[in-house]
Q: What sequence folds into this?
């Protein structure tokens, strides 16, 4: 029967009230749905767009934002983008305006010219030493990169899966091939002089196998610009006045191959080359190079100019640094990637006009030509826009699943905890409640009060006593005390019977049993880091017993009497009558048990401190110590799915469990 009659529904004021009620309920629903939508959208973002807080992330419909995410995956850090592009940016979002401009320009160039330019750029990159290229697609924050996974597979194959041999050769204290880190190169840093260890040599071998698209050429122009900016305290007017130039911005300055003619510009060039420039990019006149006395040189890279062989030159770095101080300006050359690329083009094309016709560009002179790193990235990005978008939607979730699947036994431990907790709760609590309901004991109310008293204290109060009990569980004393209690109470009952109150016998037997348990030597079993420690404290629940007892009391007594007349025993009545009729209440108890066991963190961490016994929630907490918030959000989203599924699938039983007690 409806609350509002059909006649009442025709009233305009009542209809307005109903409409208002639905509006309020819809607004309330939106306050729940909107935060959920924000959580889902955050779980598919990265450092580029994590602070947008949009229900639909921008990269779903904006390819320029998607390109910024592609660059984030490739370069990991903004300073690596600066090294490749010769720009001065602080975060990847600053790439978006550059992307909008350059993608339009790149699309306007004829397809054949784009293919020719990229083919020759790949050829140039393959011809350059490894010290000119950074390895890309390594590890974004909180993730495992594509090339990093390839490197670990390479190392595993090299040692034929024998990790012990790998650890001995690399002298690293890590636990598996998946924990091996990729050597971090600082190619443009003056003080970067890596030791030629076995691991670094293997890394260089791996680096040689990488396609040019998985590496990035470093740019020295931005380093030189930053050097001049610091020297002139970011005052461009002072620099132009000193150099006699007309630069509009610091990033218009190029690092010359040779020392300028004279003046402050020559002085700055010499200081930069002698004190700041990394060894792989310094060329020395052949006579000076041979005078140093080292064989770690590439002879005649340019006519009469030798280049250091990096990292083989590292043991002789002190001699090289000293020689650079003594060398004259005419003995030094800058062999930067920009310089070498211009020479590469000059060897192929007689003039910039011929090159412009071939490439579809509009350069006026050779010095204007920089590294086409952004064009190469755009060219690599355009064919895989759809796959990139899907990869970034699923990337955080894949990272979480890989982390959980590869670390410990989180899924198995959680499954065991949930299943056994539900099984024990659905066995012990109904049995206890049935006994209290069927057998009218004089102290039933006291037992119920004791059960309800357990709800008066939060679980944290009993956590430390329970931990101490689990640390050395008194199996021997409990067994000895229990046997003593049963034996003494049985003897007292046979001897005294009903001639004296039962509480006297219980008290005496209990006191002697406790004394026996305390005096029993040994028999203590440590239960920490076991499934028993996780499950046993939650076997019985006072509220569940109270709830089920009330439900059993509301069942008609005639049902039990009829079953008794048919010859059914107590257990059969419990199993075939009481349990099926209490299915809705049992469903509510099972859902509460599932939620408590699945979401248990503090107790699981306290009693199981070995990683192989950690549950899912403990591992997710461990992930929060290092993972960025978008990965954490993805982890929490995945962790919420089982609870959501259980609620959706068991909704009918839950509603019946709410309604049925009110009907009796």
A:
């Amino acid at each position: 029967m409806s609350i509002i009659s059909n006649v009442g529904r025709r009233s305009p004021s009542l209809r307005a009230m109903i409409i208002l009620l639905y509006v309020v309920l819809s607004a309330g629903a939106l306050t729940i749905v909107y935060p959920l939508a924000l959580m889902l959208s955050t779980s598919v973002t990265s450092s580029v767009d994590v602070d947008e807080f949009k229900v639909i992330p921008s990269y779903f419909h904006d390819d320029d934002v998607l390109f910024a995410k592609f660059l984030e995956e490739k370069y990991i850090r903004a300073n690596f983008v600066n090294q490749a592009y010769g720009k001065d940016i602080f975060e990847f979002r600053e790439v978006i305006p550059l992307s909008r401009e350059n993608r339009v320009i790149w699309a306007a160039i004829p397809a054949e010219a784009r293919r020719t330019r990229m083919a020759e750029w790949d050829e140039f990159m393959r011809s350059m030493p490894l010290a000119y290229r950074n390895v890309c697609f390594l590890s974004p924050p909180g993730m495992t990169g594509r090339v990093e996974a390839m490197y670990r597979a390479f190392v595993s194959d090299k040692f034929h899966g024998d990790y012990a041999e790998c650890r001995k050769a690399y002298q690293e204290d890590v636990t598996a091939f998946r924990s091996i880190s990729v050597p971090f190169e600082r190619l443009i840093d003056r003080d970067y002089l890596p030791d030629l260890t076995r691991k670094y040599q293997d890394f260089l071998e791996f680096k040689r196998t990488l396609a040019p698209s998985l590496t990035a050429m470093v740019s020295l122009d931005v380093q030189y610009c930053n050097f001049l900016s610091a020297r002139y305290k970011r005052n461009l007017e002072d620099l132009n006045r000193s150099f006699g130039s007309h630069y509009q911005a610091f990033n218009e300055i190029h690092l010359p191959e040779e020392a300028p003619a004279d003046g402050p510009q020559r002085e700055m060039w010499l200081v930069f080359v002698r004190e700041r420039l990394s060894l792989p990019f310094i060329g020395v006149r052949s006579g000076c190079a041979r005078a140093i006395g080292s064989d770690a040189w590439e002879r005649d890279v340019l006519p009469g100019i030798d280049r250091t062989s990096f990292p083989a030159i590292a043991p002789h770095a002190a001699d090289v640094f000293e020689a650079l101080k003594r060398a004259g300006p005419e003995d030094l050359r800058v062999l930067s990637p920009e310089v070498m690329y211009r020479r590469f083009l000059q060897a192929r094309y007689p003039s910039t006009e011929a090159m412009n016709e071939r490439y579809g560009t509009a350069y006026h002179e050779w010095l204007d030509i920089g590294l086409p790193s952004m064009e190469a990235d755009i060219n690599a990005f355009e064919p895989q826009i759809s796959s990139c978008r899907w990869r970034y939607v699923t990337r955080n979730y894949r990272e979480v699943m890989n982390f959980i699947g590869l670390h410990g036994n989180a899924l198995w431990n959680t499954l065991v905890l949930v299943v056994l907790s539900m099984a024990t709760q659905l066995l012990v609590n109904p049995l206890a409640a049935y006994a209290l309901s069927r057998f009218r004991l004089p102290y039933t109310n006291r037992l119920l009060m004791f059960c309800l008293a357990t709800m008066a204290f939060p679980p944290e109060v009993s956590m430390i006593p329970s931990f101490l009990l689990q640390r050395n569980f008194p199996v021997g004393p409990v067994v000895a005390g229990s046997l003593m209690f049963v034996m003494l109470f049985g003897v007292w009952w046979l001897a005294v019977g009903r001639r004296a109150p039962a509480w006297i016998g219980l008290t005496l037997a209990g006191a002697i049993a406790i004394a026996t348990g305390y005096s029993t030597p040994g028999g203590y079993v440590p239960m920490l880091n076991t499934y028993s420690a996780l499950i046993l404290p939650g076997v019985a629940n006072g509220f569940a017993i109270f709830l089920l007892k009330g439900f059993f009391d509301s069942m008609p007594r005639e049902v039990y009497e009829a079953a008794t007349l048919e010859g059914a025993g107590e257990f059969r009545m419990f199993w075939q009558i009481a349990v099926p009729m209490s299915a809705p209440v049992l469903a509510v108890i099972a859902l509460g048990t599932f939620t408590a066991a699945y979401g248990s963190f503090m107790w699981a961490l306290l009693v199981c401190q070995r990683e192989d016994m950690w549950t899912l929630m403990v591992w997710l907490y461990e992930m929060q110590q290092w993972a960025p918030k978008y990965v954490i959000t993805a982890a929490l989203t995945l962790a919420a799915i089982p609870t959501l599924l259980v609620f959706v699938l068991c909704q009918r039983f839950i509603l019946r469990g709410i309604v049925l007690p009110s009907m009796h």
In short: The two ends are 19 Å apart (CA to CA). Residues 660-664 have pLDDT under 50 and may be disordered. Residues 407-472+526-663 form a domain with the MetI-like fold fold (CATH 1.10.3720.10).
